[in-house]
Write a structure and sequence with these properties.
Layout: H1 5-12, H2 16-23, E1 26-28, E2 32-34, E3 36-44, E4 47-54, E5 60-65
Antiparallel strand pairs: 1-2, 3-4, 4-5
Bound molecules: zinc ion (ZN).
């Protein structure tokens, strides 16, 4: 996957409260539901994909926004 500026713009066009909700509802294989931090925005087909770190264990987590 490549970082995607268009996907990042689409992501930033979401209202901030919706973005906060999505950032805070990410699944980590170690911690369960967690918050994503230090993420970059990618795209996969037409979906926005956030790839970053779990707020708790700092493992890599991915959130697809469809
Ligand atoms: Zn975790």
């Amino acid at each position: 996957m490549q970082k995607d500026e268009l996907a990042e713009r689409r992501w930033k066009a979401f209202p901030s409260d919706i973005r906060k909700n999505l950032e805070g509802n990410v699944y980590c294989s170690n911690c369960g539901v967690t918050k994503i931090v230090n993420y970059d925005v990618y795209s996969s087909d037409y979906d926005i994909v956030l790839k970053g770190q779990c707020n708790k264990c700092h493992d890599t987590v991915v959130r697809v926004i469809d």
